[in-house]
Amino acid sequence: MRKLLLYFTLLLSSFMVSQQAQDSQSDSSIERINSTLDSLESKITDEFYQNNFLSVLKYSDEALKLARKINDQTLVFRLLRYRGSAFTKIKDTVRAKRTFEKSYENAIKLNDSIAIANTLNDLGNLYHEYGQDDKSIDYYKHSIRIHDKLKNQRQLYILHYNLAEIYLDDENIAKADFHIQKLLPYFNTIKKPLLKAAYYFTKGKLLLLQQRPDEAIEMFKKNIEVSKASNLTDGILEGYGFYIKALEAKQDYEQLYHIRKELDNYKDEKYEIEKAAAIQEVTARMNVDQYKQELKAKNLENELNRQKANRSSTILYVVIGATLILAGFFIVLLISSKKRKELVQNLKAKNIQYLEAKQKAEELSQVKTNFLSAISHELRTPLYGIIGISSILQEDVELKKHSEDINALKFSADYLLSLVNDLLFLNKLETFKKKKLDCKPFEIRELVTNITNSFEFMRTKNNNVFDVVIGEKVPRFLKGDFVKLSQILMNLIGNACKFTEEGTIKIHIDQTRSGEKSVGLQFSIADNGQGISKDKQKIIFDEFTQDSKATNFHGTGLGLAIVKKLLDLHNSPITLKSKKNVGTAFSFTIDYDIAHEDEFNTVKKKHTVNKHIEGSHILVVDDNRINRLVTRKILERNNYVCSVAENGQEAVDIVKKEVFDLILMDVNMPIMNGYEATSLIREFNATVPIIALTAIDPTELGEDINAKGISDVIIKPYDTLAFLDVIRRNFVSTIQI
């Protein structure tokens, strides 16, 4: 919106200054000149607001000569302002600055307060175009002091608006608010839609910075409404742009989708306008240079013609030769200008296409991220109930005869959860590329044993045998990102289990390089299953790629894509050898630092709590009845006393009346969410551990966890042992053992 006001003052202030112009001369020749000047000034005004800046410069140059001839300094001032603004419009800031400085000197000579104030405003606009806002602010404030004395409300409105925009861009809320308040006295009396739209837009930006998105949205709606009524395309686009930011702050993604669609329609319209404006701007700049060259050529030709009348024929030949040289230069200049113009137009068009494609890709990426996040939460919540209840049923001796069915149920739920996690993890890998690996000590043999044990059900189902061989030279303790190594091995072993029946799956780890502080380990996972055809081997690491002929096997086709991306983080290529109906072998090499047993024990001690506090009172806060039931059953089976609450408000009321040793708090709940409830509880109880029990992806919880007073987080669905370990760890943090 600020761009709509930068030159709004030109016509207004020129009118004011023109009211002060006095012409006392009555000579008939001066009257004819004045008549010509009136006609020229009218043309200049029309051409300026039709963006014909070459015509503005041409007519103003002619008018300046006449105005100076009759010594009309007031008109000289106005004409200089038009020329300065025309140069600014075509991005010739050097000539614009020089012209405005002449205009300011002229205003000082006139001792005209309005002229001085308006030229200060011009210089403020120009320095803002330079990006030198400190100077711009000084000029605006100087202009305000003058207009304040003159009680010129409309000019004050525009100047305070310009300052408010600068301070909003710098996120200086206090100063921006001060200047927006200055707009109010004049706002109720103005009729110009542009000025009304500008106020709503600026007020909305301020409210958004003050983290008041609902109020900001109302302002942006009014801005869009006024802008649409007056066909102010810039106002519509910028209003929608900040409307979207306010919806993002509210996390109102449904409304955000609709508003983005509306914005895209106006962007297409704006693109056509800006394309035409860009072409016009480049053309104008070229034409200005061409006009100056023509003017120089014309002046030189006139001078030569005058000399021709007074000099000998020898000088005439020199003039003719010079004219020919000048003509040749002019032709070269025209050709160069034409080529440059074409190049500029092509570059602008390609740049616009690139920016549009980049923006579209970013928007699609964000939509995909939001969609996967929402789907994750909606799937994880019921999966928590299924996995939790099936885990409880597995431990019930009375249901032993149904153990096979219960195991199958839990396996299916775990498998579905792994698919959801694969989708989300793949979506987050772009973020991981910018982060370092999380290196911690671990025991390689224990890690491999735990991984193979997790596939016991699938191994038994397909009647396979694991052949695990870890070379004797492989150190017992290593330091590296064992979580990502686990994901790599689990995906490769899971793939082998899925496509192998009544076969052998070999997991071999050998040392390939040995150093004083680090080693290189080669991992090999091989099977004698159905193998992979040669054409499929070329695309096997692509996302969502599966063997379409393998109708007995299901999945998302993400496992090997995830493996490839994780190994890229380790700067390690993966090798594939496979033959149809013979088998498949994957191998890769990763370098690890050598760790010592004391390092491993220190880390292990941090995550292991032997102290079990039986009878501790735990409050479970969750709006889902099944989730409350599952969590309560798990806690009671481990000798904890359990109470429940359906929402954050109920939890706050219960904690005020009863004493709890720990609180498990869901995040998304009706009436009052987990963050709000935690904040209220912390006002009167700062010590009780509060653990967030949520299905939200951990990367989306952000800084709210620590800022709101939450002690720890457990992501649903979870492993029961890990769940109990987090609870015990938080007991230890508040109890001296």
Task: Describe the protein.
It catalyses: ATP + protein L-histidine = ADP + protein N-phospho-L-histidine. This is histidine kinase. Keywords: Coiled coil, Membrane, Phosphoprotein, Signal, TPR repeat, Transmembrane, Transmembrane helix, Two-component regulatory system. Its EC number is 2.7.13.3. GO terms for molecular function: phosphorelay sensor kinase activity. The protein is an alpha/beta fold. The chain has five domains: about 1-190, Serine Threonine Protein Phosphatase 5, Tetratricopeptide repeat (Alpha Horseshoe); about 190-250; about 280-375; about 435-605, Histidine kinase-like ATPase, C-terminal domain (Heat Shock Protein 90, 2-Layer Sandwich); about 615-730, 3-Layer(aba) Sandwich (Rossmann fold). Helix content is about 65%, strand content about 10%. It contains 28 helices and twelve strands. The strands form two sheets. Strands 1, 2, 3, 4, 5, 6 and 7 form a seven-stranded mixed sheet that branches. The protein has a five-stranded parallel sheet with strand order 9-8-10-11-12.
CATH C-level name of the largest domain: Mainly Alpha
CATH architecture type of the largest domain: Alpha Horseshoe
The averaged pLDDT comes out at 80
How would you name the CATH homologous superfamily of the largest domain?
A: Tetratricopeptide repeat domain
Low-confidence stretches: 11-25, 548-554, 606-612
The share of residues in extended strands comes to 5-15%
The total of beta strands comes to: 12
